[in-house]
Amino acid sequence: MKTKVNRRMAFIAIFLLVDLLITLGAAYLYARFVWFYRDPVREPIKVERAITSPADGQIVYIKEFDETGGIYSEKLGKKIYLKELSDLPLALKKEGWIVGIYMSPFDVHFNYAPVNGKVEKIAYTKAKMNVPMVDLNEYIRISYLRQAFDNFAARFHLENERNSLLLSGGDFPVGVVEIADKYVNKISCFVEEGQELKPGDKIGFIDRGSQVDLIIFKKDIDFKVKFGEQVYGGKTVIAEY
Q1: What is the DSSP letter of 90?
Q2: Which residues, 6+ apart, have CB-to-CB distance to 97 below 8 Å?
Q3: Under CATH, which architecture does the 45-240 domain have?
Q4: pTM to 2 decimals?
Q5: Which residues, in sequence order, are CB contacts of 168 under 8 Å at separation 6+?
Q6: Contact at 8 Å (CB) between 216 and 167?
Q7: Domain boundary assignment for the chain
Q8: What sign results for the dihedral spanned by CA atoms 146, 152, 155, 158?
Q9: Which member of 73, 143, 164, 210 is catalytic?
Q10: Is 210 marked active-site?
Q11: Adjacency order of strands within the sheet including 174-180
């Protein structure tokens, strides 16, 4: 009698385990191949002379740079050169700000135009191998605990796959740098040089976790966001001028 009961309990346990594995597998597949690619309708906030966020995510730094010797910011007293846009037209001898937005796997991964303007230049940088943007502890902190940290001038800025866009036509140029993380498949670009854009237009998509840098070639602006704040592409006003 006990043997039959034990067999029955073992069968039930195996059935429940298989059912749990199937449920977890289905949830992963849905999250990875359906929910992750969600494309919500974004209605930009109508604010004159504003710069909206190019991506969903957390603000991980707001750094100032000037025109001395090219575009750079400083970290621990050392000059960190921002090579992404320094050699593009309209971007030489400029000053302004660079805003880093970290996109966790839970954020929408479409990217958006932050201002009105024409795509002046697109510069794609291919990488032999992407390095991780964050370690496991940092990943848990920023993705699950929503605790931002400053990761400016990390190794991935110089080595990972990137796609840089320079927008002109407004009061000053604005750059968007899409940066791929270690396990990213690719960066998809939806625009081409010479194309006219308005705030909230989709400009690209980065698979899995990643980061977008917003380069504002103007020093005198009024920031509406701060370090650690969650922002939404095409909706959140980063700054006014």
Answers
A1: T
A2: 62, 63, 64, 65, 215, 216, 218, 219, 221, 239
A3: Distorted Sandwich (2.70)
A4: 0.81
A5: 90, 117, 118, 120
A6: no
A7: 1-33, 45-240
A8: positive
A9: 210
A10: yes
A11: 196-197, 117-125, 162-168, 174-180, 210-216, 96-103, 57-65, 230-231
Tens place of pLDDT per residue across the chain (241 aa): 556 656 677 667 776 676 667 666 655 554 555 556 778 888 777 778 899 999 999 999 998 877 654 555 555 565 656 555 555 544 455 788 989 999 988 899 899 999 999 998 898 888 777 777 777 788 788 877 888 888 776 666 667 788 889 998 777 889 998 988 776 668 899 999 999 999 999 999 987 668 899 989 888 999 999 999 999 999 999 999 9
Query: Distance between CA atoms of 115 and 137, rounded to whole angstroms?
Result: 35
Q: Quickly count: other Cβ atoms within 10 Å of residue 132's Cβ.
A: 16
Nearest to 190 by CA among 171, 172, 169, 176: 176
Q: How far is CA 167 from CA 175, 200, 231, in A?
A: 6, 13, 21
Q: Which amino acid is present at 150?
A: D
The encoded tokens of residue 92 equal 């030489």
- Tokens linked to 196: 């006219």
Contact residues for 67 (Cβ-Cβ < 8 A; gap 6+): 93, 94, 95
Buried b (16+ CB within 10 A) or exposed e, 142-153: bbeeeebeebbb
